[in-house]
Design brief:
Shape: elongated
Strand order of the largest sheet: 1-2
Strand content: 5-15%
InterPro entries: Heat_shock_Hsp33, Heat_shock_Hsp33_C, Heat_shock_Hsp33_N, Hsp33_helix_hairpin_bin_dom_sf
Keywords: Chaperone, Cytoplasm, Disulfide bond, Redox-active center, Zinc
GO molecular function, one term: unfolded protein binding
Distance between the termini: 31 Å
Protein name: 33 kDa chaperonin
Largest sheet: 2 strands, antiparallel
Radius of gyration: 24 Å
Number of helices: 7
Organism: Pseudomonas cannabina
Helix content: 40-55%
């Protein structure tokens, strides 16, 4: 993880669980220390999911009450059938499950994939190698280094001029004029 302030860190969490929803739930418990449950359903044409996360301790300070509330919402969510999840809209599902509890619906936010890769982040990876190693990579790869994002498949090219500019403190605003 590359935090905005502070030192970089990496956490490794085992991928445990009999299915994806259990693996994701375990990840949040182990990595984020946040009670989380997922219910995922699909029928070949549609896929839907339900995510529940435990409220912060500031909301409910009594640990026993907090645990009881968490078990309550999980128990109710576990009664949701695949057919209900795939065919009903969110307000209806929430009303059926939690009509006796206070429920707050937030505005719908569309989900879309956005990769956070950039030329600058790729350049930072090169800088972390050091000047000598970066120059050696340029030589070994016929005059340019290709860095491919493993998430979105964007490709960033850096030639000898780009590498020299990086280590001279020139930044990476745009690629050099060299045709790649």
């Amino acid at each position: 993880v590359d935090p905005r302030q502070g030192k970089r860190y990496q956490g490794i969490v085992a991928l445990d669980g009999v299915d994806l929803s259990e693996s994701l739930s375990n990840y949040f418990v182990m990595s984020e220390q946040l009670g989380t449950r997922f219910w995922l359903k699909a029928d070949g044409h549609r896929a839907r999911g339900l995510l529940l996360q435990q409220l912060p301790a500031a909301e409910i300070t009594d640990p026993e009450e907090r645990d009881a509330n968490w078990e309550h919402v999980i128990t109710l969510a576990s009664t949701l059938t695949a057919e209900e999840m795939l065919s009903l809209d969110n307000p209806t599902i929430l009303h059926r499950l939690y009509h006796e509890d206070p429920v707050r619906l937030f505005d719908i936010q569309p989900i879309c994939f956005r990769c956070s890769c950039s030329r600058e982040r790729s350049a930072n990876a090169l800088v972390s190698l050091g000047l000598e190693d970066a120059q050696q990579l340029v030589i070994e790869h016929n005059g340019s280094i290709e860095i491919d994002c493993q998430f979105c498949n964007e490709r960033y090219l850096f030639d000898a001029t780009d590498v020299a500019q990086l280590f001279a403190g020139g930044g990476v605003d745009s690629p050099s004029d060299t045709r790649h």
